[in-house]
Design goal:
By secondary structure, the chain is α/β, with parallel strands linked by helices. The chain is 49% helix and 8% strand. Strands 4-3-5-6 form a four-stranded parallel beta sheet, with helices on both faces. The chain has a two-stranded antiparallel sheet with strand order 1-2. The longest helix has 41 residues. The two termini are 20 Å apart. Bound molecules: adenosine-3'-5'-diphosphate. Adenosine-3'-5'-diphosphate binds next to helix 3, helix 6 and helix 12.
Length: 339
């Protein structure tokens, strides 16, 4: 690698490190000086009275545009939801909706239903591939009609927003305090939330968190628990007796599962098994998959020349022509992979 420092400049590493005992710090020499740079710096300082108000004005303008952008985003999401729910989504009688307030065991149910409705192989990048997030597909424009039956969707929509059709809905509820705590941890790890739990809890109680009030959500579905299209489950019961919960789901959905498959399904839906495959369930990876980015594609192969091998001949030529025009005259070398 070429150094950015002028030749013969030395970088001294202070070996004794910082007073707090952390890693040694590096002291850089001052950058090269030039009379032109000093004049520029002087003018820049003279402009201070103009710079400050101009900077504030641009700051304000940036906020105004951000607000417009957020409002526009909200409107566009609302339009897309309405379109999906009332125009684009055609229910099939074997559709299954997993419904919940976030952090209540949604992903767990996704895995259970995936195991029950397929051969259960783990050959997918993220569970959302197999069991999409219904309302999110409005934004990602995923074509739900292409999914094979029985389709299993996950949704966090409150009852009032749920597309109510002739299909099955499995609601899972969890103790609100555990939900609040789990949600807080999630906010910290995935949304970089900086507040403490008390502050978060206040927001949670007012329903000023993603997906609104937990109380309102649970209430809306609890009232419909007698509706034959609904199965109401509790997270705590599932922890206590996973096999029992799986059997209830099988019965509710009218599935035919050979008895000898049950122990393996229970094993695959255990916390330890899912933890081992966490990237297939993590929301962060879901967002990546949604944008077409595959988990594990960041540190890919680390092999020079792979891209060059993949180039078709015409692209090689196009590149080489431009290289010859723009860079070769400057003596910029194109390195080729060793051997
Ligand atoms: P914790 O944060 O308390 O660990 P959701 O999928 O609705 O966001 O819910 C996430 C919660 O469900 C997390 O709770 C997660 O650990 C828990 N969960 C997911 N799979 C589970 C499993 N197989 N067994 C028990 N809990 C599970």
């Amino acid at each position: 690698m070429t150094s950015l420092l002028p030749r013969n400049t030395t970088v001294s590493v202070v070996a004794e490190g910082r007073s707090d005992g952390s890693a040694p710090i590096v002291q850089l020499p001052p950058p090269p000086d030039a009379p032109g740079l000093r004049i520029k710096a002087f003018i820049w300082r003279l402009l201070w009275p103009i710079r400050w108000p101009l900077s504030r004005l641009l700051w304000l303008a940036s906020w105004v545009f951000r607000l417009i952008q957020w409002t526009a985003f909200g409107v566009h999401v609302a339009i897309d939801y309405v379109r999906l729910m009332y125009l684009d989504y055609t229910a099939r009688p074997d559709d299954i909706f997993i419904v919940s307030y976030p952090r209540s065991g949604t992903t767990w149910l996704q895995m259970i239903l995936y195991q029950l409705t397929t051969d259960g192989n783990m050959d997918f990048a993220h569970i959302a591939e197999k069991c999409p997030w219904f309302e999110r597909s409005a934004i990602s424009k995923r074509n739900l009609d292409q999914l094979p039956s029985p389709r299993v969707f996950k949704t966090h929509l409150p009852y009032i927003w749920l597309p109510k059709r002739r299909c099955r809905y499995i609601y899972v509820a969890r103790n609100g305090k555990d939900v609040a705590w789990s949600f807080y941890q999630f906010y910290r790890s995935h949304f970089r939330y900086q507040g403490n739990f008390e502050q978060f809890f206040r927001l949670f109680m007012r329903g000023w968190v993603a997906w609104g009030s937990w109380f309102y959500h649970v209430r809306g579905y609890w009232k419909r628990r007698q509706d034959p299209r609904f199965l109401f489950l509790f997270y705590e019961d599932m922890v206590q007796d996973l096999e029992g919960a799986i059997r209830r789901i099988i019965q509710f959905c009218g599935l035919q599962i050979p008895e000898q498959r049950i122990p393996e399904i229970v094993r695959r839906c255990s916390f330890s098994f899912m933890k081992q495959h966490e990237e297939k369930f993590d929301y962060a990876f879901e967002l990546l998959v949604d944008q077409g980015i595959t988990p594990g594609s960041f540190l890919r192969k680390g092999r020079p020349g792979e891209g060059q091998d993949a180039f078709p001949h015409e692209l090689h030529e196009q590149f080489d022509r431009k290289y010859q025009r723009r860079l070769a005259p400057l003596g910029f070398p194109l390195r080729t992979p060793p051997g």
